[in-house]
Design brief:
The structure holds two protein chains of two kinds. By secondary structure, chain A is mainly alpha-helical. Chain A is built from 14 helices and no strands. The radius of gyration of chain A is 21 Å and the shape is globular. In chain A, about 50% of the residues are buried. The termini of chain B are far apart. In chain B, strands 1-2-4-5-3 form a five-stranded antiparallel beta sheet, with helices on both faces. Chain B has a five-stranded antiparallel beta sheet with strand order 6-7-9-10-8, with helices on both faces. By secondary structure, chain B is an alpha+beta fold. Classes of the chains: A mainly alpha, B alpha+beta.
Chain lengths: ~375, ~475
């Protein structure tokens, strides 16, 4: 069966909420906004919550229709195909961002002596495998990994929270809101993840009004992220060394309390968090595969996904200078990210409204004919 | 008699069958039966009953209703049915100038006694086990389920073996769609011989090439009866003490019959122990190698120093060392099963002490490696039904851990879970009741609920009557 149930949908929402924001993002935001990263994070997460609301309404309005059928009934076949293909192309690039995140973290912290694209190969293979499975398999996987992710996040919070002085983030917006704003839009690629949930149009069993619980799920995920990020912002927000010590969170938490007594358990915990990233990336791959199946041909979808995997691997070899990649993402790609991730759900919402209107019109016409 | 001659002419070795002519009540006839697989006394009783019959004329009706009343018999006219009966050990009674023959059950197969199966030992609870005779096995199930709703459908599979196969279910509980699907799959088997239940198992599984069990198996009638009561279908194969049950969820491998004969809190503790053991068995060597090669900083300092001292001077890298010890263990295990009993003790000493202890003292391998592999290997045998797949996964995760560290273990683990999440055994999700989450079925999941609280049948197994008890 190619559907997820409500519980699986809530777990997917939670994991997607936290996935992209764990490894590089907090550090990148700190470089841009310093201690005001806390405010920047709140702005961005609030926008994402609104985005989630739009996505849920679109899912509810879609009924049993998948995303292609939803758009096709409203805007016609050609426009819907173009839209889906463009969004799929964007998600192909966003997958590259995910890979860059993972590569940056694991290559510099763990596998510094070996060629990093090689470590991405199993990750890419897993993403392609996602596309070969029905949604129900992804949903069941989510139910298994969500408790692991929650436990690992709680563990890390408990390990670091007692040692942190949260007053370090004060004063909030001490130098005005400019710094906070500078820490939002350049990182649009790391936000707006809920758009990918539109792949689940017509694929959520027992949805209806209960889909709005997804907002709670997203909020809980964001709360976790904010707590964790604020911990780091408070602990390291005014450290100038963060600009030179590297990009990733691991290089900072190695100085966490107890790391020599108990060992670097945080490395194991980050690896567990990676499962959320894998899941989120897997949903993106599924989106690309299904969009291709809907727009081109059902036979081509899996081959295209395989091609996307190969392309991602080649891109990770070619574009290996991570500083330049990050710069490109934050200076050039932020605008396409904002347009795609925040406009596409609105387009789907409009499509849903048009579909509802057409259905009511049909019912009304039928009733008139009968009369 | 031409019919007898025709029958014997089809048989490659007619001397395996004895023919006895008789004349009784003015009727001529012949009895044909196997020399080896019939009960001589029953055959003698049969011939005596025919010869001493005091009737006007001997017909099949008279034989059926008046002469052969103490023997199981059946009038057949179909030639293939006659041949099948003869090859199975039945005696055929032909009456001259009358159509067909009487099939009389005088079979006698050498079988062993019903005893406790070696792979399903329990401390508390029934100790009966299935044997190779399908009739005995069916009787054991019928003794447990004394209901008129017990449905047994029989088939013969195998062109050369003609193996009896029985599909058992309970009408009013089992979903008929599952029974139909099983029946269809069994009827479509076109093979020369079926010698064991495993032959049939591969045809019933949705993914026959997978390393994971997708069909349950049991050797005890109480387990089979319990599974039938949950809405499952049982498949019995003549010649095999293993009974197949389906649909199947992977949690069944972790369950033991003893869980149902112990207090539920203790049973829950045992199940948790088995799950933890299974995880240790599969992941421990890979995790150890990953820590040693890539993440030694994740170990507490004291433990790290201990491990480093223990592995000082070992010439092999950690991955090679662990794989070598695994290979040693598998050799010892396999040899322990195959070698003659007389040599068993001596070779066990050689294997365990000489190979293990001496290899460590010589510095070829480190003692942590021996301890890790031994612990993981023993841990997998807490779940013996999953031992095969666990052994393969253990090697896979060890290699992955050595090449890619914990990150690789996670990716491989997610591959595994995604694969398992995609398996459905006759519309039952393989990872039920945890993925998808089915709250009702968790009463018999990782933690065991007392029987008094088990009111409903498992939702994950298709059934037509969800109520087990009224409370």
């Amino acid at each position: 069966m190619d559907k997820v149930n409500l519980r699986q949908f809530l777990c997917i929402t939670f994991l997607v909420a936290i996935a992209m924001k764990m490894f590089l993002l907090p550090v990148l935001m700190m470089r841009a906004s310093g201690r005001d990263s806390f405010l920047a994070m709140i702005f961005a997460l609030s926008a994402d919550l609104l985005l989630m609301l739009v996505v849920i309404i679109a899912l509810q309005l879609s009924g049993e229709k998948n995303v292609f059928e939803l758009l096709k009934n409203a805007f016609g076949s050609i426009v819907s195909r173009i839209l889906l293909l463009l969004v799929s192309a964007f998600y192909t690039f966003k997958l590259f961002v995910v890979l860059a995140d993972v590569r940056m973290f694991f290559s510099t912290s763990v596998y510094s002596s070996t060629m990093s694209p090689i470590h991405l190969l199993p990750f890419i293979a897993l993403l392609v495998y996602f596309a070969f499975k029905p949604f129900s398999a992804s949903g069941r996987l989510t139910e298994i990994i969500t408790p692991l992710v929650v436990v690992s996040m709680l563990l890390l919070c408990f390990m670091t929270l007692p040692e942190v002085d949260f007053t370090n983030i004060l004063p909030i917006a001490g130098e005005g809101l400019d710094k906070a704003v500078n820490g939002t839009y350049p990182f649009a690629l790391w936000f707006g993840d809920f758009t990918v949930l539109l792949a689940l149009c017509g694929k959520v069993k027992g949805g209806g009004g209960k889909l709005y619980f997804g907002l709670i799920s997203a909020f809980v995920g964001f709360a976790f992220m904010l707590l964790f990020s604020t911990t780091l912002f408070s602990a390291y927000g005014d450290m100038t060394e963060v600009l030179t010590y590297g990009h990733n969170i691991s290089n900072m938490t190695q100085y966490g309390a107890g790391s020599y007594k108990f060992g670097r358990i945080d490395l194991i915990i980050y690896t567990l968090w990676l499962s959320a990233v894998v899941l989120s990336a897997g949903i993106m791959t599924l989106f690309i595969c299904r969009s291709t199946e809907y727009t081109l041909s059902s036979k081509i979808g899996k081959w295209v996904t395989l091609g996307v995997g190969v392309l991602l691997f080649i891109m990770s070899i070619i574009f290996s200078e991570m500083n330049r990649v990050t710069e490109f993402m934050t200076t050039v790609m932020w605008l396409p990210a904002v347009i795609t991730q925040y406009c596409f759900p609105i387009i789907c919402l409009i499509a849903g409204i048009i579909n509802k209107f057409k259905e009511r019109r049909k019912c009304y016409d039928k009733a008139e004919q009968k009369a | 008699m031409e019919r007898v001659d025709e029958l014997l002419s089809k048989i490659e070795t007619p001397t395996l069958y004895a023919v006895s002519a008789f004349s009784s009540c003015g009727t001529e006839g012949k009895v044909i039966a196997s020399v080896d697989i019939t009960d001589a006394m029953a055959l003698r009783d049969l011939i005596r009953a025919i010869n001493t019959a005091d009737k006007n004329k001997l017909t099949y009706d008279v034989l059926e209703n008046e002469v052969l009343v103490s023997l199981e018999h059946k009038h057949v006219t179909d030639f293939s049915e006659q041949m099948t009966g003869l090859l199975s050990g039945d005696a055929l009674v032909f009456l001259d100038k009358q159509k067909g023959c009487m099939l009389v059950n005088v079979r006698k197969y050498e079988t062993r006694a019903v005893a406790e199966p070696p792979t399903s030992g329990v401390i508390k609870g029934p100790r009966e086990g299935f044997i190779e005779n399908i009739k005995t096995n069916l009787s054991l199930i019928e003794r447990k389920l004394r209901t008129e709703k017990l449905s047994i459908e029989r088939l013969k599979i195998g062109k050369q073996t003609g193996t009896d196969v029985a599909i058992v279910s309970i009408t009013g509980i089992t979903d008929s769609k599952v029974i139909e699907e099983v029946k269809q799959k069994l009827e479509s088997i076109d093979i020369d011989g079926v010698l064991d239940a495993h032959y049939v198992q591969t045809f019933l599984e949705p993914r026959p090439y997978s390393i994971f069990n997708q069909i349950g198996s049991c050797e005890k009638p109480d387990v089979a009866a319990a599974k039938l009561l949950e809405g499952r279908v049982a498949v019995l194969v003549d010649g095999s003490p293993i009974v197949l049950t389906l649909p199947f969820i992977c949690l069944e491998d972790v369950q033991s019959p003893e869980d149902y004969y112990e207090r539920s809190t203790f049973a829950s503790l045992l199940r948790v122990t088995r799950i933890v053991s299974l995880f240790l068995g599969i992941f421990l060597p890979g995790f150890y190698v990953a820590l040693e090669v890539y993440h030694f900083s994740a170990m507490p300092l004291q433990l790290l120093l201990t491990v480093m001292n223990a592995t000082k001077g070992v010439p092999f890298p950690p991955l090679a060392e662990i794989l070598f010890v695994m290979l040693l263990f598998e050799i010892i295990r396999e040899a322990g099963i195959r070698m003659p009993q007389a040599m068993g003790l001596a070779m066990s000493v050689v294997g365990a002490l000489v190979l293990g202890d001496t290899a460590v003292k010589a510095g070829f391998i480190g003692s942590p490696a021996v301890m890790i592999v031994a612990l993981s290997a023993i841990a997998t045998y807490t779940v013996p039904n999953a031992a095969g797949s666990s052994a393969l996964l253990r090697v896979l995760f060890t290699v992955i851990g050595g090449l890619l560290g914990i990150y690789g273990l996670l990716i491989c683990g997610m591959f595994l879970v995604l694969y398992l999440a995609g398996i459905n055994s006759y519309e039952t999700p393989y990872l039920a009741p945890y993925a998808p989450d089915i709250s009702r079925d968790k009463q018999d999941g990782l933690l065991k609920t007392p029987i008094v609280d088990v009111v409903r049948r498992p939702k994950s197994v298709p059934n037509v009557n969800g109520t087990r008890q009224k409370r």
